Amino acid sequence: MKPAADYQTITKNFTKELIDASSGKKTSLFFIVHQLASTPLVSDKEKFQVLKIGGSILQNALVYQDGAKLVVKSMEEEHLPIFSTGKAFLAFIKAHLRKQVKVLAINFAYPLKPVFENDRLDGVLVTGSKEHAFSGLVGKQVGSTTEKFIKKKFNKQIVVTLANDTICLALSGLLKYPALSLAGGIVGTGMNFAFFLDEKRLVNLESGNFNKFTLSETVKTIDAKSLSPKAYLFEKEVTGAYLFQHYNLLTKGEHPALVSTHGLDKVARVEVAGDKQLARDLMKRSAELISCQIAGILNFTKREMKFVMEGSLFWHGYNYRKTVAETVKKLSKYPVKFIEIQDCGIIGAAKLVI
To answer: Does the pTM exceed 0.85?
Structure first.
């Protein structure tokens, strides 16, 4: 298995993409800027509702600010249904909206084009994903559409604000750290990064789409058979949704085929039979490539940063976090710290309100 390319070069390419995108040039990075509310949407100790709507799990909580303290109450979790239509989604919100709530924040893990109006962040749903088609809601502002729906059904005026999961991840770090020191990173089944540009603006990179690196032969095969050829090539090279597929292609049937990257991790740990060295090499290469993006963000911002991280591959993959930490040190002079925040999806969305 040949290396993708020199990691210093990939880091420089990623940094240049950030510089170009920030000045309005077209790059492989989406560089989607999000504006935050200038003032809180609720008063101190006023309860509001937060929903984290992911691929398969709903988190539902009441939240309020008590001075400098953020209080999360009445947290509930349940499996999400498949939202084949926008109507099904709106009916779901209606069924879960708590009484007396005037403000609703949503961590919405689907592709959004941010819209800032009425001093709050909203988003247009770009497309369905993760089996949720959202037919009839695609192309519409999710927050304002929800507000109108609740007004029609209950004659109740609520305020809805929302952002995607990577933006909310970065926002959750505001509990402990200043905005300009923060980034959010997801490295699991998929991957993405977001970070603060200033106190009130963040950027979602959709960095899985980065393509300024030498593709492996296996990713070329995987990409050709994918539902989105020539898109999200970096994600297909490094993430949990695809790493085990690289292993299966490289072993050419000499070892039992794997059905998940969790299985690849077990091979690397010699917990199940397989090509231990290949499994470890794939994990290492993934971690090194992820390090290029982290180092690129550090070199672009030119400051020490805290990355709030999510994803089982990053936190639990064989030697993964250690490899990332060691590699970033070689690629950037700016220090980085990786942190984990409990209930980060709820806390991050709450920061859209307060």
So the answer is: yes
